[in-house]
Write a structure and sequence with these properties.
Helix content of chain A: 10-25%
Distance between the termini of chain A: 33 Å
CATH architecture of chain A: 2-Layer Sandwich
Strand content of chain A: 35-45%
CATH class of the largest domain in chain B: Alpha Beta
Number of strands of chain B: 19
Strand order of the largest sheet of chain B: 5-6-4-14-15-16-13-17
Strand content of chain B: 15-25%
Number of domains of chain A: 1
Structural class of chain A: mainly beta
Radius of gyration of chain A: 15 Å
Largest sheet of chain A: 4 strands, antiparallel
Strand order of the largest sheet of chain A: 3-4-5-6
Number of strands of chain A: 6
Shape of chain A: globular
CATH superfamily of chain A: Folate-binding superfamily
CATH architecture of the largest domain in chain B: 3-Layer(bba) Sandwich
Oligomer: heterodimer
Order of helices and strands of chain A: EEEHEEEH
Number of domains of chain B: 2
Largest sheet of chain B: 8 strands, mixed
CATH topology of the largest domain in chain B: FAD/NAD(P)-binding domain
Shape of chain B: globular
Number of helices of chain A: 2
Largest interface: A-B, 25 and 24 residues
Bound molecules: flavin-adenine dinucleotide
CATH superfamily of the largest domain in chain B: FAD/NAD(P)-binding domain
Chain lengths: ~90, ~400
């Protein structure tokens, strides 16, 4: 079983985690153009590479960020998202 | 079976990236129906080595949207005489297809699909548990008490399976005989664009074996689509997750129809060789690799035993994965793009094998005339920007 390290709970089996997609900046809905908003809603960067992604440790409800290589599936590091701790975006 | 070409020519009328079923079918119909045979099909690997050779070969047309039903129905029609067309046995075998419903809401979707299907002349019926039991007497409708029982199913008589490799070979050989060049071990590394004031247009392709000039480029690369789109500066909603499958040791024939359970995340059919061909839903996260996992084999086996407990001592002999190019609405992305001369046949995710013939037909038309074929208009690249999705999830998420 593959192991992922939750920044709060430590190493846990992959089956305890849920994937939340790539970390992305939401454009300001008030000022974004239609094209920018559509791009944010639908388009994804699915090109292979090293990406920062949202993951959730479902047993404890901790959301965090993992930096992962989508080709080798190696996780380089996991950490708490600083802005989300402050209650911001 | 195929002519070997030592060298790439300097230019072709059409270049196709991907020698899977889709790319080869498009080449075949370009040469046969449109008289365009100065065509090169390039593949970084070998013919049919992508998802074409990795899929579980379910062919059906019992979809949910009118666009989907019409499109897949045309494909099922095209499948019927392909073996004669190719003079090659595709082992096309009509088995009947049962999509099991374990909940009232699933039953409601089955009735919905049956009505849409019948409206377009496709044979589908919502049936009750008794009819399922009669058709598949070995199935435990109570799922061993571990999962909600089978309440009924969508029965689709035309459901079929075929031998996947042969489909690529048949289209490939047919195209080859009509003058199309197939170049294996030829990877597209970049795409050259030119803008003469009316927006970007394709003028050439860079490969590991040299440059080719062309004004028409068809991209049919399944799980590699995002990388090729990046070469022309396009973004899309496609996301790539692996889809796994496995087969058992050969058994005496006992299962004629194809069985799918969305609730249990399993589907199963028995091949002409007697192997049980089994699959489940998509892997849970993005990955650009074809590794397989024990998790998958374990959970699929557990669910399989709920329906067919007597399989408990049957051995699994092979397991593999393919990279599925998924879309948010479970419909493909096909046709012209904002880059002129760049045509896309993508977003085929977990369900594109059955569509191989109709994709070849419609994409060859689209490339030859530079105009989207009428059957693919619901699948256009720009539908997301128009917020006009073609929602097929109810018919495509587990039953590929
Ligand atoms: C496990 C599994 C089960 C499935 N089950 C079903 C099913 O039951 N029914 C169904 O209808 N569909 C099913 N599918 C989906 C189906 O397999 C695909 O949608 C379909 O085969 C796609 O065919 P294709 O020709 O477009 O792509 P592929 O067969 O993947 O061909 C694409 C080719 O492009 C080549 N390529 C990629 N990048 C480059 C490059 N840069 N340069 C040159 N060449 C390149 C690759 O080497 C590859 O050979 C399943 C898929 C999987 C993975």
């Amino acid at each position: 079983m593959k192991i992922l390290t939750c920044p709060i709970n430590g190493p846990r089996p992959m089956s305890e985690f849920a994937y939340g997609g790539e970390l992305r900046e939401m454009p300001d809905p008030a000022s974004a153009t239609d094209a920018e908003w559509t791009d944010y809603v639908f388009n994804r960067n699915s090109v292979p590479g090293i990406k920062c992604e949202w993951w959730c440790h479902t047993s404890s409800g901790v959301w965090f960020v993992a930096e992962r290589d989508t080709v080798s599936d190696i996780v380089l590091r996991t950490f708490l998202h600083v802005k989300s701790v402050g209650g911001g975006a | 079976m195929f002519t070997r070409h030592e060298r790439l020519k300097n230019s072709y009328d059409v270049v196709i990236i991907g020698a899977g079923g889709h790319g080869l079918a498009a080449a075949y119909y370009l040469a046969r129906d449109h008289g365009i045979s100065n065509v090169a099909v390039l593949d970084q690997g070998y013919i049919g080595g992508g998802n074409t050779g990795r899929n579980t070969t379910i062919i059906r047309s019992n979809y949910l949207t009118p666009e989907g039903v019409k499109f897949y129905d045309e494909s099922v029609r095209l499948w019927q005489d392909l073996s004669q067309d190719f003079d090659l046995n595709l082992f096309y075998s009509t088995r009947g297809h049962f999509t099991l419903a374990h909940t009232d809401s699933a039953m409601r979707t089955m009735r919905w699909r049956a009505e849409v299907n019948k409206h377009f002349g496709v044979q589908s019926e919502a049936i009750d548990a008794k009819a399922v039991a009669e058709a598949v007497p070995m199935m435990d409708l109570n799922c061993g008490g571990h999962s909600p029982p089978v309440l009924g199913a969508l029965y689709h008589a035309p459901g079929a399976i075929a031998r996947h490799d042969t489909v690529a070979w048949g289209y490939g050989r047919g195209a080859d005989r009509r003058g199309v060049e197939i170049h294996q071990n030829t990877q597209v590394l970049g795409i050259e664009l030119e803008d003469r004031g009316s927006g970007p247009a394709v003028v050439g392709v860079r490969t590991n074996r040299g440059r080719i000039a062309t004004r028409k480029l068809l991209c049919a690369v399944a799980g590699s689509t995002p990388g090729v789109l990046a070469m022309v500066g396009l973004r899309s909603p496609i996301y790539v997750h692996p889809l796994q499958a496995m087969v058992s040791e050969p058994l005496k024939p006992w299962l004629d129809p194809i069985i799918v359970s969305g609730s249990l995340h399993v589907y199963i059919s028995q091949s002409a060789r007697g192997e049980l061909v089994m699959g489940a839903s998509l892997d849970p996260y993005e990955l650009h690799s074809t590794r397989s996992t024990l998790d998958f084999a374990e959970s699929l086996s557990a669910h399989m035993l709920e329906l067919f407990p007597f399989l408990s001592d049957v051995r699994i002999v092979r397991q593999w994965a393919g990279m599925a190019d998924m879309t948010p609405d479970f419909s493909p992305i096909m046709g012209k793009t904002p880059v002129s001369g760049f045509y896309l046949d993508s977003g085929w995710g977990t369900w594109g094998f059955k569509a191989t013939p109709v994709c070849g037909k419609t994409m060859s038309h689209t490339v030859a005339r530079d105009e989207n074929h009428v059957l693919i208009r619901g699948f256009a690249f720009d539908r997301f920007a128009r917020y006009a999705l073609t929602g097929e999830k109810g018919a495509a998420s587990v039953g590929h």
